[in-house]
## 1
Amino acid sequence: MMQELFEKNLTHLGTPTWYSRNEEIFVEGELATGIFKIKSGCMRTATVLSDGRRHILSFYLPGEFYGLEAGRVYSVTGESVTRCKIHMFRKNALFEAADDKIAMRLLMIAASELSRAQKHSLLLLRGAKERVVGFLLDMAERQNNWQQVDLPMTRGDIANYLGLTTETVSRMFGRLEDSAAIAIERRRVTLCDLPALKEMYK
Amino acid sequence: MMQELFEKNLTHLGTPTWYSRNEEIFVEGELATGIFKIKSGCMRTATVLSDGRRHILSFYLPGEFYGLEAGRVYSVTGESVTRCKIHMFRKNALFEAADDKIAMRLLMIAASELSRAQKHSLLLLRGAKERVVGFLLDMAERQNNWQQVDLPMTRGDIANYLGLTTETVSRMFGRLEDSAAIAIERRRVTLCDLPALKEMYK
DNA sequence: CGAGCGTTTGAGGTTGCTCAACCCGAGTGG
DNA sequence: CCACTCGGGTTGAGCAACCTCAAACGCTCG
């Protein structure tokens, strides 16, 4: 896999760091010097509108990358959702060490970011229940586990990401549980009726 | 500018084609062999959900590129919004002709696609009026004209892209006109009170 | 055991959707 | 030259979905 190769070649160029909960990892507007790989825990990216509203644009789980920007500065702020370990690669180092395949690897990372952002847009074009179901299915896929999903983030974060309110997310969870499609315990969700869920988010 | 360079070097590898209105340019699921640059007119990308609903993910104006995919196949369908001229580059040809900077150029295109998709997500996280205003401001910026905006697409396409209904888009246009922020004539919109508009979409 | 955050639940209000009618301009054919 | 049609756009009334505000509950961690 390309990511394995990428990491193998470049681990020595990066630095692993531990963050506790809700720490800033990089800040919107800063010179975008780093590329990040999540080793454990969960990171989110968010942007702040000038009136103070905050929007979460993405969550990052172990194994996933962040860091390719159109501009020279970060367009979002990166924050730890939970205590987490994150490996940072400096772009300069990458480019200095560049063999002729490295840009291609970066291209693949950018393309997967793009695909992620498009999925998010599609999610936001739907109704509340569908958004919640789509979110659960996406998390299940990324955790590679269709039985149970861990939700490292709060309901508030989920709601913000989905363009809903905490209350609505909670109610949708409730309704899904009532219909026996899922079972909820704290921040672990069991996908009891996967076909039904996939039917809701087709 | 990077795009000039890109095109200059590679024009001979591409083929320009004319499309009439509402033609398919490439289809979701097809092997993604091409990269497209809009020369005139307007293109849109859309995806069809399994229940038949269609969602427009992006519009492309003259000078803009489409074509970098995470996977080997197109994840969306490309269609002409108006009669338009589009230049297609074959990826294979690009890679064969690759000097050591070409992957970097592709990376920049991918990054701008990403930024576009993120803007779309942010748009969808807002209320109806804000979405419409945000859309107008985005089009103005991309057309490099803060006085007047051309809207090559129908209200239906705008609504679909914004996750609203035609009626709502029409009403929001009406309300903006009533408040003297814009003036509408067919598919040309004059931005009468730009500060007010920017205030609405801050 | 208390404090505080995160979550759930309920009642009422607002936004944007649905359904329906109507308008307008561009083609088309008599 | 007018009548008809058709796609696109606007407008209005009623309704459903989702939000707001408010209260209560339950972990978790001092």
## 2
Amino acid sequence: MQHLIDSFLQTELDKLNKEQKKAALHKEGPLLVLAGAGSGKTKVVVTRIAALIAQGVDPYNILGVTFTNKAAQEMKERVSSLIGKSVLISTFHSLGVRILRESIDRLGFSRQFIIYDADDSLKLIKTLSKELYGPDEKIDAKELQSLFSSIKNNLERAIPPNIESIYNLYKKRLFELQAVDFDDLLFLPTLLFQRHPDVLEYYQDRWHYMLVDEYQDTNHAQYEFVRLLVQKRKNLFVVGDPDQSIYSWRGASIRNILDFEQDYRDATIIKLEQNYRSTRTILSAANAVIKNNDSRYEKALWSAHDEGEKISLFQARSERLEAHFVAHMVRQIRSLHGIPLSDIAIFYRTNFQSRPFEDLLLSQKIPYTIIGGLSFYQRKEIKDILAYLRLLENPNDLISFLRVINMPKRGFGEQFLTKLTAYAQREAIPIMHLLRSPPPSEIRTSAKQKAGWQEFATLYHNLLQAKEKKPLSELVRDVITQSGYLSIIDLDKETREERRENVAELIAKAAEWEDMQIQDMQIQDMQEAENPEKEPSLSRFLEELTLTTSLDSLEENNSDRLSLMTAHNGKGLEFQIVFLVGLEEELFPHINSKHSPDSLEEERRLFYVGITRAKKKLFLTYTTQRHLWGGLRHMRPSRFLHEIPFELRKIIKQ
DNA sequence: CCAGCTCTGGACCAT
DNA sequence: CCAGAGCTGG
């Protein structure tokens, strides 16, 4: 048996180059793999996990962390198909939830906590700032939100005095509502490890080998989380590329990777410099561009592929004509070279740029899919229905309550709700429990409100019963029909059709999810239990939705479609043909990055990420005029275009 | 005090 | 181009 595994592993290892092999066979101690774009890092990570297991490591003791569910899923599948074993590979955020569900009681929280997404937390901040400063004070809630976020992401101890009171109130209220925000999913596990050595030790003894992908995009909380977890055994395997660090605005620090040698003594460093993805032309262009950055970890990416075609440069006179050119080229490439649409992508800097492309592709009947952007679950009608569902799970959920109490209109306005919230707060009663009796007598209540109150209470009662008895999809249907939500949808004739389709889609998705859970449960018996409780429940459905990004949910779409996405969303992907569009000053590089050299370098890294997604052919386009901020503006070509050597590009005339 | 209307000002990237 | 502020009638 052992020899069988060995020979099997040997075949896998034979597929790797010298450096890749060295990384894959690394067993103990800290290791940094500097993996250039397209250098086969996923293959290395997967083989390394297989090698560990072949050497007798229990799969249960291995932990892999990635940034997106999609990447985690892919790695998991590849490991499983290679050695037939299931290994825990998760995103930082899902891992945080897992740890908190097991151990958050040590921080005084209930294990039944709810997760507030960015939208919910913004609403809470707005509510609190009114509470604290009065309704007339103009407070930039978004600004506060991002300050709070960076405090948590940087594990800041000193809170700026001017925001201290509102920050503390925010934390206190989250605790009272038994809610955690997105940043807490990293912050609280780290806090847990710092405060409770026994908890830390428990997890250290569970995961002996840790692998972290995209290490260049970790923030300080994640850094600390990882550091604590591997402290005992020091078996940390990180993979990353400083040149692809593009999330500093989310608190990521490029220093984490640049300082790896200092942080982990005796660290081995391996550079993967052979690119297996792109033509030499594309790679030379990428190298020429990134060379302009000062803060780098020097490495020379090379390719054994052919020179390939020159990079095409196109200047349009409007965003509409830019889209026209792209659509035209896509048709041509498809018919002339037989390249499927699924192997072609359009990358842009900001989401609003997708508009003209969508319009044109729609009218020309070219199938496309938008990856990212406003996801299905961020649509108003969907969030409203989900808020009803969340209240069934957690009667404390103030934000969801405020979202749906007057949806449809039941006569409750700001005045009433402010008083009611204050009342619930003072009496320390979960907001939904107030519905067990008539509105508090100290709050003036009109006849309409009394009726609305009764109606809402009955609805809640009925839905709670439906939750116990009916399958999830039926429950979702009940929420939609019984709440009266359909009457709101019908109000607006313009959007009526679309919104009806969306809520119907939600019912379908719930049914689909249920089926999948049941299937999973049957497979689950074969493998070690990885999730303590796997029965399809409302709470697990809701949790998965909050953690599933638009990026992840669209992978099920396997029909032949052109992909449209931001350059950020393109990271980790590759396509035969890539169009990088909107390459204009103040757009890419974005205007907000002009103030500092650091953020300008990050823009350049983002451009680099975009270029290196292309395998065969790269198109760069820009327009001289564009509709921006409500008006028509003159645009200048991006400085990055000038960084591409002449001999690598050719200009396409319209 | 709520609901519906008009007006205005703000809009990068996202787990 | 949409969300939230501001205004006014019920």
